[in-house]
Design a protein that fits this description.
The protein is of the alpha+beta class. About 15% of the residues lie in helices and about 35% in strands. It has 4 helices and 10 strands; from the N terminus they run βαββββαββαββαβ.
Amino acid sequence: MSDNALINIGTNAVQTYDDTMFDAIKSGADFLPRLQLMTANSAPCKAGEFPTNHYARVADNEFRDLGDTVDVIVCSWRPMALEQDDEDGVIVVYDPKADDTGKPTGEFARIQKKADSAGMNGCMYGPQFLVWVPSANEFMTFYMASKTARRAAPAVKARMYKAATLGSRKIETKDYTWFGPTCQACSTPLETPDEASLMEEINKFTNPPEPAVETVEEDESGRER
């Protein structure tokens, strides 16, 4: 099986964030749907309305089942920090404004520090990926903001511009059992998006408004271990 890049962006779009920064909430017609692994902690799974450990296309609080695995092409990524506030809505920060050592500063760092503290505080951070989902014939975002997802994120980043199969795996400790995302090379030939649409989505994704206050859908903030 060939493992060559499936998309070639050339010099038309520059990857905004470098490896030292590695780590939208979106609604409405101008925003992309999101791709989400629906674990047992997800409200629709708890209610028996959605299969556990399946991937969903989520938009406008509608969940479409994509299966227990989903093939994608990883098109881009950006850092994202998010804070839910009952009064101000949801604050979304995409720019870490890193210092000379590569550590985030400013508002991003504040949200990251709060997310890493104990308790449910409405904050999260991690890499958000732009992916092309051939089975749905559309672009989606994939936000890897839980501790478990962030540990799996380098495997997704390693598939940049290539085909990937997203799945899940069981994680067990002495006291807890839960599931997290996995990513591996995809062995199925995938249809790629047309170049014009690809470049448009990459450029919009890598140049988001900053700062942003957006509306969060219920399950985006579901915390995992």
